[in-house]
UniProtKB/TrEMBL annotation:
Zn(2+) binds at residues 194, 196, 201, 243. The gene is kduI. One of its GO terms (molecular function) is zinc ion binding. Pathway: Glycan metabolism; pectin degradation; 2-dehydro-3-deoxy-D-gluconate from pectin: step 4/5. This is 4-deoxy-L-threo-5-hexosulose-uronate ketol-isomerase.
Length: 276
C-alpha cells in the first residue's frame, strides 16, 4: 500500500510539474486481477480500485492498518465503473452494474469482488475512511441516486449529478460519495470552483477516450495549478485546494470525500473573476 503524506499549500507553491504529479495524481487505479490501495494522510482516507477478471478478489488488511481485517475500524464506499459484477459481504451477495454503488459498514469481516464476464470486467472504485460506529451495508443504483441536472450548453457544463452516500442518502460515519456525468459538448466540471476546509476529496476520471485528457485545476483560488489527467486516473485534493477541471471532450468522474461532515452542499465558493 503506497502512502501519501499530507502536503500544505505552502509546500505545494514550490512544486514543479513532476512533484505535483507525484503527490496529487494516482496513475494506476485498475490493474487486472488486483486490488490497488493508496493510503493518504488527508483524513486517513484509503482509495483504490478492484478489477477482478479471471478470479474473485478478497479485500485483505494491510500491515499499515494494524488491524485484524480491513473493515475492523473502517467503512468503505464502492462505485462500479465497468462491467457487471458481484460483491459479497459476509455471505450476502450484491449485484452491481455500471454506476451502481455499495456502502459497507465497520465490522464487516469478509468482502470479495467478482466480475460476471472476463471480457467486460467490473471496475470497482473504492474509498475508505475510519469509522466510529456501524451503519448497515446498502446498495444504491444510479436510478435511486436522486439524479440532478445542472449547468447549461452556453457555459459548456451541462451535467448530471448522482449522490449516493451523503447526509440524505446512504448513511455513513465520514464517507460522502457520488459521481458526475457531463453531456456531449460540455467540458467544465465544478465551476465556479470551491474549497471545503472541513474535508478532503478524491476524484476518479472515467469514460474518457484514450486520446483525450482532462486539465484538472488545483491549488488555492488565488494561485492555481493544474494536472493533466487520463482515463482511470485519480486525484487527491487537499482541503485547501480547489478541484475543478476542463476536458478536451466530455467525460465522467467520481467524487469521494471524508472529514468533518456529511453535508454535500458544504462548499466555500471562489468567484470566477477572482481566480488567478
Amino acid at each position: 500500500m503506497q502512502i501519501y503524506q499530507a502536503i500544505s499549500q505552502r509546500e505545494a507553491q514550490g512544486f514543479n510539474t513532476q512533484q505535483l504529479r507525484e503527490n496529487f495524481l494516482i496513475e494506476s487505479i485498475f490493474r487486472n486481477n488486483e486490488i490497488a490501495m493508496y493510503y493518504t494522510h488527508y483524513d486517513r482516507v484509503i482509495l483504490g480500485g478492484a478489477m477482478p477478471v479471471y478470479s474473485t478478489l478478497d479485500l485483505q488488511t494491510d500491515d499499515n492498518l494494524k488491524a485484524d481485517y480491513f473493515l475492523e475500524r473502517r467503512e468503505i464506499g464502492i462505485i462500479n465503473v465497468g462491467g457487471d459484477g458481484e460483491i459479497t459481504v459476509d455471505g450476502e451477495t450484491f449485484a452491481l452494474s455500471k454506476l451502481d454503488a455499495l456502502y459497507i459498514g465497520k465490522g464487516s469481516k469478509s468482502v470479495t469482488f467478482k466480475s460476471n464476464s472476463a471480457d467486460a470486467p467490473a471496475q470497482y472504485f473504492l474509498l475508505s475512511a475510519p469509522a466510529h460506529q456501524t451503519y448497515p451495508t446498502r446498495k444504491m443504483s444510479k436510478e435511486e441516486a436522486s439524479p440532478v441536472s445542472l449547468g447549461s450548453a452556453e457555459t459548456a457544463n451541462e451535467r448530471t449529478i448522482y449522490k449516493y452516500i451523503h447526509r440524505d442518502g446512504i448513511q455513513s460515519c465520514q464517507v460522502v460519495m457520488g459521481l458526475t456525468v457531463l453531456k456531449q459538448g460540455s467540458i467544465w466540471n465544478t465551476m465556479p470552483a470551491h474549497v471545503h476546509d472541513r474535508r478532503m476529496e478524491a476524484y476518479l476520471y472515467f469514460d474518457l477516450d484514450a486520446a483525450h485528457r482532462v486539465f484538472h485545476l488545483m491549488g488555492q483560488p488565488q494561485e492555481t495549478r493544474h494536472l493533466v489527467v487520463a482515463n482511470h486516473q485519480a486525484i487527491l485534493s487537499p482541503p485547501w485546494s480547489i478541484h475543478s477541471g476542463a476536458g478536451t471532450t466530455n467525460y465522467s468522474f467520481i467524487w469521494a470525500m471524508a472529514g468533518e461532515n456529511l453535508d454535500f452542499t458544504d462548499m466555500d465558493f471562489a468567484n470566477i473573476a477572482d481566480l488567478k
